[in-house]
Amino acid sequence: MTAADGDRDHVQSLERGITVLLAFDAEHPNPTLAELAQLTGFSRPAVRRFLITLERMGYVRGAGGRWSLTPRVLAIGQHYTASHALIELAQPHLLHLAEQTQESASLATLDGDEVVYVARVPVRRIMSINVSVGTRVPAHATSMGRVLLAWAPTEQVDDVLARHPLAAPTPNTVTDVGVLRATLAEVHRQGWSVVSEELETGLLSASAPVRDRSGAVVAALASSTSTGRSTVEQLERDVVPLLVETADRITADLGGTARAS
Fold first, then answer.
1. Helix 177-190 × helix 143-150 angle, to 10°
2. Under a CB-based contact definition with an 8 Å cutoff, are residues 126 and 106 in contact?
3. How far is residue 201's CA from residue 136's CA, in Å, rounded to a whole number?
């Protein structure tokens, strides 16, 4: 396909409509039309047309000059879950891991420079942020993100690290690109990642890669706890072996083979 072909196939109005939909977030749950125009960079008349279309489709509603998402948007995520065998296959393994560790177990994938939770078995509330399926967190500050970046193509990692300065959710967050690259190399070498208090103070997590039948890393499996209940040393000794074993079992169910590199 040529660049011209790609341009002809690109539906700009669809892209802009989705951009408007994605502008609704935790910081802007009920924005005005003017606020949406500012967030998206689109003109007010254009945003108004997108909102009316989305309202007719049942994805947003307007009241008192403000707009909000409707529960119908959840159907999009449900369709993703229903169409991905990975999630269905992983769920019993997450449950077993959570029972073994008595801590929360999660499965996540990489989307740009963020990690997206696609499956989760919560045990205890260990984070002040609301973690559920669909939650997005910065990849560089999480064990899941580091696992996914450690096996991602070099150009993808370069793109993620070059987008903008790395945010620092806590004073412990690694924001130096050189240090992070060295950390990713170490994660790739050892086959797992442990991150302590980089996403949130008191949060401690470990992750291991899940591969498909081609050997590509398609997800990261994580176990999360708090620094009040465990230490990095305890996590590496007691949880990482269970985590790697569970990730390998999910890999096997996907028709893949666990590999060290």
1. 80
2. no
3. 18
Evaluate whether 243 touches 221 at the Cβ level (below 8 Å).
yes
Spell out the residues 6+ positions from residue 84 whose beta carbon is closer than 8 angstroms to its own. 118
Which pLDDT value is given to residue 10? Answer: 77
Is 0.85 surpassed by the pTM of this model?
Answer: no
Q: Is-contact 94 121, C-beta < 8 A?
A: yes
The answer to whether 257 touches 146, Cβ cutoff 8 Å, is no
Query: Coil, strand or helix: which one is 157?
Result: helix
The pLDDT assigned to 135 comes to 83
Contact 139, 113 (CB under 8 A): yes
Domains in the chain, CATH or no CATH each:
3-71 (1.10.10.10), 84-253 (3.30.450.40)
Mean pLDDT in the chain? Answer: 85
